[in-house]
Amino acid sequence: MRILVTGASGNLGSAVLPRLARDGYDVRPMSRHGRPGWVAADLATGAGLAEAVRGVDAIVHLASSPSKTRETDVEGTRRLVAAAREAGVRHIVFISIIGIDRVPFRYYKLKLAAEAAIRAGGVPFTLLRAAQFPTLVDTLLGALSKAGPVLIDPNMLVQPVAVEDVADRIADLVAAPPTGGIVEFGGPRTERLEALTREWLRARGSKRPVWSIRVPGQTGRALRAGALTTSELPTGTQMWQDYLKAKY
Ligand SMILES: NC(=O)c1ccc[n+]([C@@H]2O[C@H](COP(=O)([O-])OP(=O)(O)OC[C@H]3O[C@@H](n4cnc5c(N)ncnc54)[C@H](OP(=O)(O)O)[C@@H]3O)[C@@H](O)[C@H]2O)c1
Questions:
Q1: What pLDDT, on a 0 to 100 scale, did the predictor assign at position 191?
Q2: Distance of CA 171 to the CA centre of its chain
């Protein structure tokens, strides 16, 4: 079985490639930039997509652009699915995010539109909505402490999930028949952001104070009510602490 992996050079893609290779698949990584053994294609323009999907049984679609999201994630996904349908691809596993229908961030609205493109595309699919990766939480906490103290909404609920765990889940899903629906996948524990932040500070040996802010409106209410988390099983196994121990 040949699997095309978009976003193969990314944070998640780098965990997915060895996982799928270990399962014995013929893996075809895709990037905008040519590399030996990889296929070069650009979702934002469509260049190279027809060749990328040729002879492929399934696609694991991970590519995303925070700056050119509409062109890459929404229109690019539409282009990818059209090419996949043409090539007779039998399954697309698309990585999405828990809570995109409950938290009104711009990126999330576009991610929902990308999901809609998958649903409408005519290729059997599975949508995997994952919780936040530890690297993202780490980067966000860094950004929120630029001014000195860490400014967080302490009651926001988060459930970080390791990319290696997500890679395992993707390997399970691509081996199974398309669900035609949404699978949610979070880390082993849901916690208040304050608890994660204090562990983050401890791991870095930092004495920065934590200042509470309250994210206003519908966004704040959703984040505090656990919109980014799931009770669905199974969950990942790696803890936020495991990530901190390895990183700091
Ligand atoms: N970060 C999180 O906490 C989180 C949580 C849940 C779900 N997700 C989802 O997981 C996915 C992967 O996240 P990540 O953190 O691994 O992303 P990442 O490290 O930023 O990687 C993004 C990838 O997208 C590719 N890409 C960007 N623009 C492209 C274009 N025009 N055409 C083709 N490829 C393009 C890049 O490949 P090249 O530069 O090599 O072309 C890169 O490999 C995303 O869809 C994201 O929404 C993320």
A1: 98
A2: 14
How far apart (Å, rounded) are the C-alpha atoms in residues 161 and 189? Answer: 9
- Choosing from 35, 62, 136 the residue with most ligand 1 atoms within 8 A of its CB, the one to mutate for a pocket test is 62
Measured from the Cβ of residue 192, the count of other Cβ atoms closer than 10 Å reads 16
Distance CA 189, CA 187 (A): 6
| pLDDT, tens digit, 9 for 90 and up, residues 155-172 | 999 999 999 999 999 999
The maximal CA–CA distance of the chain, rounded, in angstroms, is 57
pLDDT score at 34: 85
Taking the C-alpha atoms of residue 24 and residue 2, their distance in angstroms, rounded to an integer, is 10
For the stretch 103-133, what's the b/e string if a residue is b when 16 or more beta carbons lie within 10 angstroms of its beta carbon? beeeebebbebbbebbeebebebbbbbbbbb
Residue ranges for the chain with pLDDT beneath 50: none
* Torsion sign, CA atoms 169, 171, 174, 175: negative
CA 13 remoteness from chain centre: 10
User: In whole angstroms, what is the distance from residue 148 CA to residue 144 CA?
Assistant: 9
pLDDT at 241: 97
Cβ < 6 Å from ligand 1: which residues?
6-7, 9-13, 31-33, 42-44, 62-65, 72, 76, 95, 97, 130, 132-133, 136
Beta bridge partners of 95: 128
**How far apart, in whole angstroms, are the C-alpha atoms of residue 168 and residue 161?**
11
Q: What is the pLDDT of residues 197-240, one digit of tens each?
A: 999 999 999 999 999 999 999 999 999 999 999 999 999 999 99
* Predicted structure pTM score: 0.98
